[in-house]
Amino acid sequence: MHQLTLAEIARALAAKQFSAEELSRALLGRIHQLDPQLNSFITVTEDLALEQARAADARRAAGESGALLGAPIAHKDLFCTQGVLTSCASKILTGFKAPYDATVVEKLAAAGAVSLGKLNMDEFAMGSANESSHYGPVKNPWDTSRVPGGSSGGSAAAVAARLIPAATGTDTGGSIRQPAALTNLTGLKPTYGRVSRWGMIAYASSLDQGGPIARTAEDCALLLGAMAGFDPKDSTCVDQPVDDYLAALTQPLAGLRIGLPKEYFGDGLDSRIAERVLAVVEELKKLGATVKDISLPNMRHAIPAYYVIAPAEASSNLSRFDGVRFGYRCESPVNLEDLYKRSRGEGFGAEVKRRIMVGTYALSAGYYDAYYLKAQKIRRLIKNDFVAAFSEVDLILGPTTPNPAWKLGEKANDPVAAYLEDIYTITANLAGIPGLSMPAGFVDGLPVGVQLLAPYFQEGRLLNVAHQYQQVSDWHTRAPEGF
Ligand code: GLN
């Protein structure tokens, strides 16, 4: 049962091959047996899951037939879940049980999805390796001495190891696409504003976006269809109808114009990854696509701009964790200042503190113009690069990451080396456009991802191209040994 995709599960449940309760019990058994090797879950909500599964079975027995009715999933632990620990993998949220569900959680539950628990991540989604979690690092099921990517590393490891068929993630600078690439999955970061951020604990509010991580583009289409849509509770959520992503999958690719940015194939890219990416391009040509060389000239400024804007927003967002309102409070504070200082000093990890300091500095009087404002101007240039590129091509294609999964600890003491892993993904967040990573083969037994980028609200096109590629390739069907 654990090998099935969401689409296959939907058919099996409709054909009564097994019940949602049986399926959830089987996967909970796998989580108990196998997750100690991976550490992908922070919380397993067994009782709640079985209750939701029985409710899904009852709805089906009463004649309902939604594709996600009874589908097991799990949520990254920064989506608020009512009455369940929502930790952001931080000590500072110790014991915090959210008083309400995030809109994404609510929408997926309404569609009948069964949540098996909450997934490990980098603390406050800051990281590319899932090593900054207060709950310990997550291991990559393809090689447990390696990182699964981050920050949605728990989501990626759990789906890759077939503990769950799909999960939610969030992507501020690549945190859905990069872990998907490093674990042989399909992951989609939607257009900024496509999916509600209500109840999604903020890291960098102008960049954060929730999305699906699954094995296939078809499953991402199923999940995105349920997650997306206008939400009056999020003022940045766009009031635009949700496309029929399943219908988009089957469009032929004849005439599709693909752009290959020269900046995506330069120094720093592992040449074996470049080979895999170009092999995908050849397959897409056979399906009728045409290819054009393009340029995104301001891409080289993306990492410096991101590492000013994201920490600036984080320093502001994380000021709410003060030892008074949520989670952790230090022992016996002597006065209010001591309470703030020690609660935050003891509650936040090193990477989070680094970013709060960088961000506070960048926003301080006298430096705001030199750093924050400058970074915002670069952001506009990057957006303009994409707008110009999309006047010539329908889709941009390149590698998702410069390297395959690295060893645990390898970059842990070198934040800049880790930041450089985001080089291909963060431009999409700065511009707000949608991006998808899909499996493209292996290098030394480690998965490699190809990234597709599309104009605003063209998630359907990304899913279409990925699905068509998955009809003529089988990388996405490969499972890590031992799982
Ligand atoms: N690795 C990037 C960072 O640490 C992106 C993280 C994310 O997308 N949440 O900021």
- Give the integer mean of the pLDDT values: 97
Q: What is the annotated CATH architecture?
A: Alpha-Beta Complex
Give the helices and strands as they follow along the chain: HHEHEHEHEHEEHHEHEHHHHEHHEEH
Instruction: Give the number of helices.
Output: 16
Total beta-strand segments:
11
Q: Do you know the CATH topology? A: Amidase signature (AS) enzymes
State the secondary-structure class: alpha/beta
Estimated helix fraction? 25-40%
Rounded to an integer in angstroms, the radius of gyration calculated over CA atoms is 21 Å
Q: How far from one another are the termini?
A: 13 Å
> How many discrete structural domains?
1
Beta-strand percentage range: 5-15%
Within CATH, the superfamily carries the name Amidase signature (AS) domain
- Give a short account of the largest sheet: 8 strands, mixed
EC number: 6.3.5.7
Catalytic activity: L-glutamyl-tRNA(Gln) + L-glutamine + ATP + H2O = L-glutaminyl-tRNA(Gln) + L-glutamate + ADP + phosphate + H(+)
GO molecular function: ATP binding; glutaminyl-tRNA synthase (glutamine-hydrolyzing) activity; transferase activity
Family: Belongs to the amidase family. GatA subfamily.
